[in-house]
Automatic annotation (TrEMBL):
Full protein name: histidine kinase
Organism listed in the record: Bacteroides intestinalis
Record-annotated membrane-spanning stretches: 884-909
Chain positions found as 4-aspartylphosphate: D1239
Entry-linked PROSITE patterns: HIS_KIN, HTH_ARAC_FAMILY_1, HTH_ARAC_FAMILY_2, RESPONSE_REGULATORY
Gene3D superfamilies, A to Z: 1.10.287.130, 3.40.50.2300, Histidine kinase-like ATPase, C-terminal domain, Homeodomain-like, Immunoglobulins, YVTN repeat-like/Quinoprotein amine dehydrogenase
Domain Histidine kinase, first and last residues per copy: 931-1148
Stored InterPro entries: CheY-like_superfamily, HATPase_C_sf, HATPase_dom, His_kinase_dom, HisK_dim/P_dom, HisK_dim/P_sf, Homeodomain-like_sf, HTH_AraC
Alphabetic keyword roster: ATP-binding, DNA-binding, Kinase, Membrane, Nucleotide-binding, Phosphoprotein, Transcription, Transcription regulation, Transferase, Transmembrane, Transmembrane helix, Two-component regulatory system
GO molecular function per UniProt: ATP binding; DNA-binding transcription factor activity; phosphorelay sensor kinase activity; sequence-specific DNA binding
EC nos: 2.7.13.3
Lineage of the species this protein comes from: Bacteria, Pseudomonadati, Bacteroidota, Bacteroidia, Bacteroidales
Length: 1451
């Protein structure tokens, strides 16, 4: 029983091995399925065709499908789409020469699918409508010349494929039309000259140049070598010679009862006749027949239905019995092949017979009633195809109902469920599976050309030169034909010059095999011995090498480098770093991977870098080692230190392969250096992987680089790489570190994790197929276009179609996903845009012009095909504005525009020049008037002030004198009004005029202004009145400016209105607007003059000769109204009258965003009232009897005004004069006056600069200052107050008001002195004087004054008990003169220095007495009094009691 089980097990193992070997030798195919799950419209495919562009078309039961290698597109009739298609179930399709598709439906109708418009055309519909009958289509013939024949039951249609879509080029052929001999057409054929042969049941009809005079029916036609061969119904071979146009009946060596089933071309002048009695070959050149009998012992029937001749000249005959017969014409060897039952497909329907040869020369077929298989010509066997090499149950048995071979050599076939595509690849690789799951680790081809191989399973196999297994190496040294394990993992082989084989193992040391006989070796093992320093340094050996000096080197993976040395006694010892190899560092280079030699230099690959040393040495101790490692910042250094393999090719170039570091080519000639230069190749240079393991050169000089999971062919001359993946290697596998070898048959043997991979380099090549590129879609402005872009000769884009996307595909059906694309738009760009597998090109905002879209691609092997570049001319039409006409127009417009601009610039320049001149004149006028106005203010002051003084104080004036003085005063006021108007103009022009808005009763203000003209109205008997619709009208206005507006309008009204007329002022409210108008019955204004009425210096001179005008009144009115955000208009008729209408906003909101606008409260007059002045005068009577009168410094450049001020002030004050700011500053420093009155506009130094210098001088900064100026604006006042002045009075001024302001300031100064004295005396111990908040109109204590008083108090504290203290010493301690000290102290606190010292000392005495610790004498001395009696006298004078009385009162 055990023997039976063992025998069965061995049988099973051998069977699996046999099947695996067969699978490993089978052709390389790629099988891909397409079904409804990945885009096919329906699973049942009835027919497959390829059009002239290369697109694949499928007819299904759900319409027509187009396939471009990536996507399917379905065409059929949809509800409401207007299609003529009566049924979506297609039974057959035929391609035309125009790239359209004939579609035959299940209901026997035919339609032409126009691939450009993507619509179905019912070409026979017009004939059916005309004849009122339906034509049932049997078959369709599409001839190469562009003519199609549609065969029906009794007739046929000849169709011109180009014109039929337009309803033309369709001809009906039938006996009734007398253009066809028979009603039943057997076949249609086009010969080499383009003539059409129509074989009918009643003879042949020829359309073309040839003619035939015969009514004999024929059933088959073939053309061979310029002759036409026909088979008649009675099974005769007939030959038609075009030159003679005669039929020649050839006498066949068989009876007419022998049916000819088919006729085949079997070569030049060779015709094969497949008959019921065998295959007859007619050799036309010799005029003889040869009978091939297909019968064998397994095939008794002689019947032949079809025949195929392969490229080896062998015939394959298909009959009516299962199988196929192979026949060799030379050897007459024949063999019958039948598909075993287990290889037949499990399907309801029988496979269709077919046979073909792929591009690799492999013959594929389905024998009659058989299964899918290929012919193994070496073994002369039909073999099934296995989809999995390692699985004997993976036979591929498809059910083939229909098949098609495309132009690329791919096989497409249909079955019940889907469509299958099989692509065929070069049969360049043979995978021999051994010890599956264990790596093949080492190879050796010995001197007898035997192949030695080892695996990690522990087996060592030896193969003969023919590839057959010689046997297994046993531990005893014999070669056994039975599987035997060597029990050791052999990692490397080496055969030395003496034929001794060395084997290095992992963990088991070194083995030496010496041949002792046929298939017998003496094995000697060497291992590391701890007690023997000359033993092997380590037991793991990865490499063994014999150099040019026949020295043998052993590389240990853990023990470093070993040199084998044989002693005179024949013993072997190992030299290494532990004994004589002293120059070798075992600690750093312990792990050696590979040893080789190049140019008398030994190269050692280690995990720590590359070592080199010369082979020219006599003693091992003399060896000098050089190390090359990776240097991070050096490009020419090694890419990685882990050197795994070293190879020198036939060009003497040496390559160093580093683990994860790619390929390193040595560039340096001197290898005995620590700075060898390398050129590195990595994935960045095209290497498929940086994890390279080994390399080898083929017989053509190409270098094959083995990576972990990829194979690359390196062309050193071009420095290019070709990758070969699992598509070529048959399946997923991993390469091992086994050093590859080349067999005598030029095979490359590579180690894998499955077994031995045998490669034929000359057969492993990239495909040269050039895939055609088609356009599959076009998007314009993001919308897909219903346009057949692929057939366009050029594409024109409208100006509105500048954003386009082109979609395309390269028709390589082997592996479309591996195709890469590149495109460029020539004319816009020169560089190619490489987009990998993306199949679209987009351009945005294309400029107008002529372009050429170029698209190129690789094939499925990644080879770029320059010759297959697809080109599409593109014209982007310009808008009119981008045409040459537009550029001409642009140039014309540019010239015109430039000329116009130049003209306008010159005109504007002249205009500006005139305007500038006029502006300069106006500015000169205005500046002149302004300067004059400033100058007039001083004489006006000298006129107005004395007149006012006389009118107010002189009571003895006569009535006539008072009348005249009153007239003088009135005209002075009028002149001041005119002067102010000129100054207002200047401020408006400089944008310095501010609007001070306050809530005002407009009616009251109007009455006040109108009162100024009552007297004139009475004198001229003018009806003068105010009319308003409300008693009180409140509005936000600037009272001063509003008065000027109304005053000017009334002034003009009275000026131009004759006596006994009327002047009416209207004030009304309309919404949020205030409407004020001044209407008169004067002379009126001419309409032409009205347009310039508000211009500056514009007057009505001819109407107003007796009352001259400055021409600025109405212009000023308009400017002031615009400052109020209002408007003015005039209505006037000559000799009737005029009305000026002013419109102003009443609210305050409109002014809030204006810069020069301020809002003020209406709380009374802006200046001091007379009552206030009187009150101040009463509260502050002047004491003229004082010893030290109050001094006032007057700084004025006008002598008369200065004299006038001296006159009115000298009665009560000491007056000091200065004529300019510089002199005023000097006088102030000299005299330290109590008050300064100054003008602003003065020579040398103006008033403001003088004020600034005074306030910065700590000795005189306390002096109050009043400024007098003709500048009356608010800005001028603010700028003065910012300098620290105490009051600002505008010229002309009232003398009474000036004196009242002086008294008020001095009174406020006195109050401030009292307050300060009280605070300083009460807090005299505090180092810092109090800070007093004083209003701007009062004299202020500046920081300098506070510092001064603080210094004074500090000196007083120190000198409190100094009875000899004098005023001069006190002033010196403050760095001041006696006079300045006196004046400053008196002006701040109102006390002289003597009184100040006495007051302070008495207050200190009071403090001391209150303490109760001192007697009166001590107190006196402590407070600076030498005499207690004098102290008591002074105490009583200040306190009102003696010190004793004070002390008693405290008790």
């Amino acid at each position: 029983m055990r023997k039976y089980i063992l025998s069965q097990t061995i049988y099973l193992l051998l069977f699996i091995l046999f099947i695996t070997c067969k699978a490993a030798a089978q052709p390389v195919c790629q099988i891909q399925h397409f079904s409804a799950y990945n885009g096919l419209a329906q699973r049942t495919v009835t027919n497959i065709v390829q059009d002239s562009k290369g697109l694949i078309w499928f007819s299904t039961w759900n319409g027509l499908n187009k396939f471009d290698g990536y996507t399917f597109k379905n065409y059929k009739a949809f509800p409401g789409d207007g299609s003529n298609l009566t049924s979506n179930r297609l039974s057959s399709i035929t391609q035309t020469q125009t790239c359209d598709i004939w579609c035959q439906t299940y209901d026997l109708r035919v339609y032409l699918f126009d691939t450009r418009s993507e619509k179905f055309i019912d070409v026979l519909r017009p004939y059916e409508n005309q004849s009122k009958q339906t034509y049932a289509v049997r078959t369709i013939y599409a001839l190469p010349k562009g003519i199609s024949w549609i065969l029906c039951e009794q007739e046929a249609f000849r169709i011109d494929e180009l014109s039929c879509k337009e309803g033309e080029g369709i001809t009906l052929y039938s006996p009734e039309q007398k253009n066809l001999k028979g009603s039943h057409i057997i076949t249609v054929h086009q010969d080499s000259e383009g003539d059409e042969w129509i074989l009918t049941d009643k003879g042949i009809s020829i359309i073309g140049k040839k003619k035939i005079e015969s009514d004999i029916p024929f059933k088959s036609i073939k053309e061979n070598n310029g002759k036409i061969y026909l088979i008649s119904d009675d099974n005769q071979l007939v030959i038609y010679t075009p030159q003679t146009q005669q039929l020649q009946f050839n006498e066949a060596p068989f009876l007419s009862s022998n049916t000819i089933n088919s006729m085949q071309n079997l070569g030049k002048d060779s015709i094969g006749l497949c008959t019921d009695e065998g295959l007859y070959i007619f050799f036309a050149g010799e005029g003889r027949y040869r009978l091939i009998d297909p019968r064998t012992s397994t095939k008794p029937s002689p019947k032949v239905l079809s025949v195929f001749k392969d490229h080896h000249g062998e015939l394959w005959m298909f009959g009516d019995t299962p199988g196929v017969v192979r026949y060799n014409l030379v050897t007459e060897d024949k063999q019958h092949y039948i598909t075993p039952k287990e290889d037949l497909p499990n399907a309801e329907r029988v496979n269709r017979d077919f046979i073909f040869e792929d591009s690799q020369g492999t013959l594929w077929m389905v024998p009659h009633q058989g299964g899918f298989c290929y012919y193994d010509r070496r073994n002369r066997q039909l073999k099934p195809y296995y989809t999995d090499y390692d699985n004997p149950n993976s036979k591929y048995n498809p059910n083939i109902l229909n098949y098609f071979l495309d132009r690329q050599g791919n096989l497409w076939f249909c079955n019940t469920w889907d469509v299958t595509k099989i692509s065929f690849f070069p049969h360049a690789c043979h995978l021999q599976s051994i010890d599956t799951g264990f790596e093949t680790r080492a190879f050796l081809i010995d001197k007898e050309k035997n192949l030695w191989t080892s695996t990690k399973k522990g087996s060592v196999r030896i193969y003969r030169t023919d590839g057959s297994l010689k046997g297994y190496l046993t531990p005893e040294g014999t070669i056994s034909p039975n599987p035997v394990s060597f029990t050791k993992n052999i990692y490397c082989f080496m055969e030395d010059e003496e034929g001794i084989i060395w084997m290095g193992s992992k963990q088991d040391g070194l083995f030496r095999l010496e041949r002792t006989g046929e298939n017998r070796f003496k094995i000697r093992q060497f291992t590391h011995q701890k007690d023997d320093p000359y033993s092997l340094s380590y037991n793991s050996i990865y490499t063994i090498f014999q150099d040019s000096k026949n020295r043998i080197w052993v590389g240990c993976y853990g023990g470093g480098l070993n040199l084998i040395e044989e002693t005179q006694e024949g013993n072997i010892r190992f030299l290494h770093s532990g004994n004589k190899l002293t120059g070798y560092s075992k600690d750093r280079f312990a792990k050696v991977r590979y040893i080789t030699e190049a140019n008398q230099v030994l190269l050692v690959g280690t995990t720590e870098g590359l070592l080199t040393f010369s082979s020219e040495f006599t003693q091992p101790e003399q060896i000098e080692f050089y190390r090359n490692i990776r240097i991070p910042d050096k490009v020419s250094s090694l890419c990685s230190n882990d050197v795994i393999y070293i190879y020198t090719d036939s060009r003497k170039d040496t390559y160093v392969l580093s683990f994860t570091g790619g390929l390193n080519k040595i560039l340096s000639e001197n290898l005995l250096s620590n700075e060898i230069e390398f050129k590195t190749y990595t994935t960045q240079n095209g290497l498929p992987s940086d994890l390279v393991e080994s390399m080898i050169e083929d017989n053509k000089g190409n270098l094959w680089i083995i990576a972990e999971n990829a194979l690359a062919c390196f062309h050193p001359d071009k420095e290019t790489f070709e990758h070969y993946d699992k598509k070529y290697l048959q399946q997923d596998l991993y390469f091992t570190e086994a050093a590859p070898v080349q067999s005598q048959h030029h095979q490359l043997l590579l180690g894998t994790d499955i077994g031995i991979l045998r490669i034929f380099p000359e057969q492993l090549q990239k495909s040269s197929y050039v895939p055609p590129i088609v356009f599959t879609g076009l998007k314009i402005q993001g919308a897909s276009q219903d346009l057949d872009i692929d057939d366009l000769k050029e594409l024109k884009l409208k100006p509105s179609e500048r954003n386009v996307t082109f979609q395309f595909a390269a028709l390589d059906y082997i592996d479309p996903q591996s195709i890469s694309y590149a495109y460029r738009l020539k004319g816009l760009e020169e560089n190619w845009n490489e987009v990998d597998n993306s199949r679209s090109a987009s351009y945005i905002n294309l400029p107008p012009g002529d372009y050429e879209l170029q698209i190129r691609s690789t094939n499925s092997d990644g080879v770029w095909m320059e010759s297959g570049t697809r080109v599409l001319p593109i014209i982007v039409l310009p808008t009119f504005w981008e045409t040459y006409w537009a550029w001409i127009l642009y140039a014309f417009l540019f010239i015109v525009s430039t000329a116009t601009i130049v003209y306008i610039i010159l005109y504007i320049y002249r205009l500006r020049h005139r305007i500038n001149l006029e502006q300069q004149l106006a500015n000169i006028k205005l500046r002149f008037f302004t300067d004059i106005s400033h100058e007039l203010r001083t004489p006006l002051t000298l006129i107005a002030s004395p007149v006012t003084e006389v009118l107010e104080h002189e009571t003895t004036l006569s009535a006539n004198a008072r009348k005249h003085l009153t007239l003088v005063h009135k005209n002075t006021e009028r002149m001041l009004h005119l002067v102010n108007q000129i100054l207002d103009f200047r401020k408006i022009e400089n944008k310095k005029m501010k609007v001070l808005l306050e809530k005002t009763n407009v009616v009251v203000l109007l009455e006040k202004v109108m009162d100024n003209f009552r007297l004139i109205a009475e004198e001229k008997n003018i009806n003068y009145q105010l009319q308003t619709n409300q008693e009180i009208i409140s509005a936000w206005i600037d009272q001063d400016k509003f008065e000027k507006i109304i005053f000017n309008l009334l002034s003009n009204a009275f000026k131009y209105t004759p006596a006994n007329k009327s002047i009416t002022v209207h004030a009304n409210v309309e919404g949020d607007k205030l409407i004020v108008s001044v209407a008169d019955e004067g002379i009126g204004i001419d309409p032409k003059k009205q347009q310039t009425l508000f211009q500056r210096f514009e007057t009505l001179v001819k109407y107003n000769i007796l009352q001259p005008s400055s021409g600025i009144g109405l212009s000023l009115v308009k400017e002031l109204i615009e400052l109020h955000c209002g408007s003015i208009e005039v209505k006037s008729q000559p000799e009737v009258g005029s009305e000026f209408i002013v419109t102003l906003p009443m609210g305050q909101e409109i002014y809030e965003t204006h810069e020069n606008t301020e809002f003020i409260l209406n709380d009374g007059a802006s200046t001091e009232t007379d009552n206030e002045i009187d009150e101040v005068s009463q509260d502050m009577p002047m004491d003229t009897d004082k010893v030290d009168p109050i001094s006032i410094l007057i700084v004025e450049d006008n002598m008369e005004l200065r004299s006038f001020l001296h006159t009115i002030l000298s009665e009560n004050y000491k007056v000091i004069e200065a004529i300019n700011g510089q002199e005023g500053l000097e006088r102030a420093q000299e005299h330290v006056p109590d008050l300064i009155i100054s003008d602003i506009m003065m020579p040398v130094m103006d008033g403001l600069d003088m004020v600034k210098n005074i306030k910065e001088n700590r000795e005189i900064c306390h002096i109050p200052i009043i400024l007098l100026s003709a500048k009356s604006s608010l800005d001028d006042r603010i700028s003065g107050l910012e300098q620290g002045i105490d009051d600002y009075i505008t010229k002309p001024f009232s003398a009474t008001y000036l004196k009242a302001r002086i008294k008020s300031l001095l009174h406020q100064r006195k109050q401030l002195q009292d307050i300060l004295w009280k605070q300083w005396s009460e807090k005299q111990e505090s180092p810092v004087a109090p800070s007093i908040d004083i209003s701007p109109s009062q004299p202020q204590i500046t920081p300098f004054d506070e510092q001064f008083m603080q210094q004074v108090m500090e000196v007083m504290e120190k000198e409190m008990d100094n009875s000899d203290l004098t005023i001069e010493e006190f002033a010196q301690k403050l760095n001041m003169g006696r006079t300045v000290f006196y004046q400053k102290l008196k002006s701040i606190i109102g006390l002289s220095p003597v009184d100040f010292i006495r007051e302070i000392r008495i207050k200190r005495a009071v403090q001391l007495i209150d303490s109760g610790e001192y007697n009166f004498s001590q107190v006196a001395y402590m407070t600076g009094f030498n005499d207690p009696k004098y102290f008591s006298k002074c105490f009583k004078k200040q306190m009102g009691m003696t010190p004793s009385e004070y002390k008693e009162g405290k008790k």
